[in-house]
Amino acid sequence: LFVKRDFLRLFAPLAVLVIAVAIVLTAHGIQVETQRHLASQSHFADVATTSVAQSLAPVMRHLRSLAHEAPVCAALQSPASPALDGMASAFSSLLSRNPSYTQARWVDNDGRERMRLDATPGGARRATPTQLQAKAARYGVRDALTLPPDALYMSELDLITEHGTVKGPRRPMFRAAIRLGPNCGQAGGVL
C-alpha cells in the first residue's frame, strides 16, 4: 500500500506534465499546419487574382476604345436609326474579334437597353426594339450608372439572366461596363 501511494505521488505529476506537453505540442502542430495551409491557399488566391486581372485587362481596353469610336459617338449624339446602325456595326466588329464576348449593349441613363447585339454561331445578331429590355433593376447596370464618366465597372461572377430567368447554357459570366461621359454626346448611359 505504501509503495502504491509513493508511486502515485511521484507518477501522477509526471503523467500530468507529459499529458500537458502532449496537448501543447499537438496544439502547436495544428496551428503550424493551419498557417501553412492558409499561406498555400493565399498564394493560390493571389495567383488566381493576378490571372483574372490579366485576362480582364483587354476587356477594359476594348471598352475604353469602343466608348470613343466615331460610330458609337455618333449614335450617342443622335440616337436615331442611321446612327444606331453605325453603333451596331462597331458592336458587331467587337463581338466578331472577341469570341468569348456574348453581348454588347448600350444602356441609357434610365437603365433601358437602346442597342444590343448577341453573339451567335452565325455572327452577331441585333436585338429588335421589342427585344430590348429594362435593365435598371440589375445590379451591374445600377452600379455602373452611379460611376463618374469614363469609369470602368466589373461585375461579380454570375450567370446570364434574360427576362428574369437564368439563360442556358449556364456559364459563369463577368459583365464589364464603361460609364459614358459628355465626350461623345448627351445621351450617356453605359456600354
Written description of the protein model:
This protein has 191 residues and is an alpha+beta fold. The protein has helices at residues 2-67, 70-77, 81-97, 139-145; strands spanning 103-107, 113-120, 123-126, 152-154, 158-159, 161-162, 165-166, 172-173, 176-178. Helix 2 packs antiparallel against helix 3 (81-97). The chain starts with a helix and ends in a 13-residue tail after the last strand.
- Nearest-integer average pLDDT: 85
In order across it, which strands form the biggest sheet?
A: 1-2-3
What is the share of helical residues? 40-55%
Number of helices: 4
Q: Which range does the strand content fall in?
A: 15-25%
Assembly state of the chains shown: single chain
The end-to-end distance, rounded to whole angstroms, is 91 Å
Main sheet overview: 3 strands, antiparallel
Number of strands: 9
- Name the shape in a single word: rod-shaped
Order of helices and strands: HHHEEEHEEEEEE
Output the structural class: alpha+beta
Radius of gyration: 30 Å
List keywords for this structure.
191 residues, 4 helices, rod-shaped, 9 strands
Topology (elements, then pairings):
Layout lengths: L1 H66 L2 H8 L3 H17 L5 E5 L5 E8 L2 E4 L12 H7 L6 E3 L3 E2 L1 E2 L2 E2 L5 E2 L2 E3 L13
